[in-house]
Amino acid sequence: VDFNDPLYLHPSDTLGVNIVNEQLVGTENYGVWSRAMMIGLTAKNKLGFVDGSCRKPMEGSPMLHQWERCNAIVLSWIMNIVSKEIFAGFIYSTDASSIWKDLKERFNKVNGSRIYDLHREIVHDQQQKLLQFLMGLNDSYTNVRSQILLMSSLPTPGQAYSLISQEESHRGILSVVGNHSVA
């Protein structure tokens, strides 16, 4: 078998090897774990065993035994890097691709409450930055600061900066016009 073929087994491709350091413990680290595994499997030229692109040969094929060996190696890599609780759920599985799909279905979840909390934290941080910015302005900006704080929807700090800049430009124009009318 050519060394570029996914069915090629390098002497370092053994059962006890962990191809990544991150152990899968659940939804909290599935994204990092699966990405690390995909990189490791790609480096070992075995990604096809989990994404389904390296299909099992038909019965009687001379490559069937080699495919089964490679599949068993990939299975062992996956089993070696998951928690005992997860491991118990697929100890009798025989196909790396089906385990990969099962793990993705079970643990690749979008945690709605976590997303809500993160969004709330981002909004809170933006409001804090806005208030810091507005309170740092000198007293000549009291009116525009009050107008911004009375808005039904608070602007981002960048939008508030833009409003203050517009006010400053407006004052500069009025100052120039005022100086010309005096002259």
UniProtKB/TrEMBL annotation:
- What is the protein's name according to its record? UBN2_3 domain-containing protein
In its UniProt entry, the species of origin is given as Cephalotus follicularis (Albany pitcher plant)
UniProt-listed InterPro entries: Copia-like_N
**Stretches assigned to the Retrotransposon Copia-like N-terminal domain:** 10-57
